[in-house]
């Protein structure tokens, strides 16, 4: 079984969650790829495509919101570091736009601040909508992983991501054995 986890990340939160989801998937062929390196050739023969990004202005990042990320780092007094190339893009939004019609199963996630959803928003809602437009079907509901107001992952979220990955693997494996 082959899975690809594509993520976008400014401060490393979504990357850490992506890596933990991949650990949970635990198939022999699992690749974690930053969206800036996610060429379409990597997607061939994929049984599961997992896509995640940070929530910016209640949705997926845009060039304008990504430009704001270095300011967050400056104001964090060393608490945050910018991931290489994070503020230049492309982000998940532009990457999905560039995809052709695809048919592997998919799963989506985001990270956002712990707050009522009406306040935080969640990027996974729009990631989901855009992937469906490209012909992918979701194998599980979208999931969010939470950070505090200083943009640090909450305790337990990395472990929860691993469990979510384990769960995704079970769902896809069951679908394959039922289809045989
Ligand atoms: C420009 C910008 C806009 C953001 N807007 C939101 C938002 O609307 N809602 C929210 O919950 N978090 C927001 N955040 C916080 C991020 O979603 C959160 O810190 C996320 O975990 C960052 O993930 P990353 O380190 O992978 O980039 C914003 C962060 C930045 C830099």
Note down, in words, how this protein is organized:
- There is one protein chain.
- The protein has one domain: Flavodoxin domain (Rossmann fold).
- It is built from seven helices and six strands; from the N terminus they run βαββαααβααββα.
- 38% of the residues lie in helices and 19% in strands.
- β1, α1 and β2 form a beta-alpha-beta unit.
- α1 packs across α7.
- The radius of gyration is 16 Å and the shape is globular.
- Strands 1, 2, 3, 4, 5 and 6 form a six-stranded parallel sheet that branches.
- With 180 residues, it is of the alpha/beta class.
- It binds flavin mononucleotide.
What's a concise summary of this model?
The protein is an alpha/beta fold and 180 residues long.
Topology (SSEs and partners):
Blueprint lengths: L1 E6 L5 H13 L3 E6 L13 E7 L8 H5 L1 H7 L16 H6 L7 E9 L3 H4 L2 H11 L3 E2 L4 E5 L9 H23 L1
Parallel strand pairs: 1-2, 1-3, 3-4, 4-5, 4-6
The structure holds flavin mononucleotide (FMN).
Flavin mononucleotide binds next to helix 1, helix 3 and strand 4.
